[in-house]
Amino acid sequence: MGRHGTAGDLLALGALFNAMGVFWLLSYAVLAARARAVLGRPAVKRTLDRVTGTVLVGLGVRLALEHRHLGRVSMARDIFEHHNAEENPPCTQS
């Protein structure tokens, strides 16, 4: 059988895990600081405002048109079901 881990092995793995976590979070912090400097520029803010505004208006238009389309689909389904019910009435058992 294989060798079982010791308390020292467990501590070493714990220290490695913590070191990796600290490195990862420090990387995030550096990236966020650089992004803040770039995103804080007035030209970048203005561009982001325009892009997000356009996207939101576009999604609103899409939602409004989709609602109308779903209304037509629902009406067509109701007509189909009504027509189908006249041709194939439900069976009643005597």
Structure keywords:
94 residues, mainly alpha, 2 helices, 0% strand, flat
The outline comes out as flat
Task: State the domain count.
Answer: 2
Kindly name the structural category: mainly alpha
Distance between the termini: 76 Å
User: Helical segment tally?
Assistant: 2
Number of distinct beta strands: 0
The share of residues in helices is over 70%
Low-confidence stretches: none
The description of the largest β-sheet is:
none
Query: Topology as H/E string?
Result: HH
How confident overall, as mean pLDDT? Answer: 85
Radius of gyration: 31 Å
Strand proportion: under 5%
Question: Could you characterize the architecture of this molecule?
Answer:
With 94 residues, this protein is an all-alpha fold. It folds into two domains: 31 residues; 44 residues. Helices cover 84% and strands 0% of the residues. It is built from two helices and no strands. The longest helix has 46 residues.
